[in-house]
């Protein structure tokens, strides 16, 4: 089910175009990775969606409610953590959760559920000023979820977290998308974090979304084959390949998955001893480099 639809979004600061015809959508139970370098337009897009800043053209709908024409309803069905959770440092985690619950008319049962979700145990009663960034992020997420939103936006939520904090947060985000009736838009500079939990990834550069398919190398399938034999003559008439003499490995590009069987039959027919064969996946880092490194 579509929970967010962004169409033709454009925003200017003076004569500078910050967002240029941005179009995408987020569905329920999806985690969408939002990737781009500083200044690409990620945070500005999220601020437009959350009503924190205006835009000049286009439309944003949250659960079918237009952010301009039906602002209250559009905001009602979303929540966000942009540039870190805003908590009261002299209150405990529990007191912060209860305070925001009272402002939103949230039931005691839902408050208890959110306190349990933080997994802070006795630490829930400590002042937030004594919390690690990971603990603050969990309290922030609990507050964000209290009113049963359908869209959550997280802007760089793993910043400042230690490795265990990153793992805990990513696990929690994925669980939320699976169990709750929500969609999540998640930005991060740590590509490995996005790759671990994202169902889809969108790339933004200079205020424009990028069609990453053009950077995925011709959609072919690549295998690395290690052998101590010279198989150049065997391969040259049928396959596109490269040879790394240092590690004695052939990188062979197949047009379709059925070609693997043909390759293996070719090896068998010519009695080639294959020491190792493995499929090479193009990583998100590879795509990122192709898009952003000129």
UniProtKB/TrEMBL annotation:
Listed GO MF terms: ATP binding
Keyword Repeat: no
Domain ABC transporter per the UniProt entry, residue ranges: 4-231
Family as reported in the entry's similarity comment: Belongs to the ABC transporter superfamily.
Gene3D superfamilies: P-loop containing nucleotide triphosphate hydrolases
Protein name, as recorded: ABC-2 type transport system ATP-binding protein
Protein source organism: Breznakia pachnodae
Membrane-crossing residue ranges in chain numbering: none
Keyword vocabulary terms for this entry: ATP-binding, Nucleotide-binding, Transport
Matches recorded under InterPro entries: AAA+_ATPase (IPR003593), ABC_transporter-like_ATP-bd (IPR003439), P-loop_NTPase (IPR027417)
């Amino acid at each position: 089910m579509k929970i967010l639809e962004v169409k033709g979004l454009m925003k200017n600061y003076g004569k500078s175009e910050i967002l240029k015809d941005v179009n995408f959508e987020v569905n329920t139970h999806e985690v969408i990775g939002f990737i781009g370098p500083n200044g690409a337009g990620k945070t500005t897009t999220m601020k437009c969606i959350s009503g924190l800043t205006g835009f000049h053209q286009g439309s944003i709908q949250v659960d079918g409610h237009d952010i301009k024409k039906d602002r209250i309803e559009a905001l009602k069905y979303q929540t966000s953590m942009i540039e870190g959770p805003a908590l009261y440092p002299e209150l405990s985690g529990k007191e912060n959760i209860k305070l925001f619950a009272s402002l939103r008319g949230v039931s005691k049962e839902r408050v208890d559920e959110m306190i349990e979700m933080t997994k802070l145990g006795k630490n829930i009663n400590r002042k937030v000023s004594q919390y690690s960034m990971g603990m603050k992020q969990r309290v922030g997420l609990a507050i964000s979820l209290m009113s049963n939103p359908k869209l959550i936006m997280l802007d760089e939520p793993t910043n400042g977290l230690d490795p265990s904090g990153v793992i805990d947060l990513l696990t929690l985000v994925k669980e939320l998308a699976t169990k709750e009736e929500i969609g999540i838009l998640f930005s991060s500079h740590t590509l490995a974090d996005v790759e671990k939990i994202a169902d889809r990834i969108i790339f933004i550069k200079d205020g424009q979304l990028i069609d990453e398919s053009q950077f995925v190398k011709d959609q072919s399938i690549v295998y690395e084959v290690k052998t101590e034999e010279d198989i150049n003559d065997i391969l040259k008439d049928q396959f596109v390949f490269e040879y790394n003499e240092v590690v004695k490995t052939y990188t062979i590009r197949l047009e379709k998955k059925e070609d693997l069987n043909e390759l293996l039959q070719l090896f068998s027919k010519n009695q080639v001893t294959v020491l190792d064969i493995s499929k090479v996946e193009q990583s998100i880092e590879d795509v990122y480099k192709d898009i952003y490194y000129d």
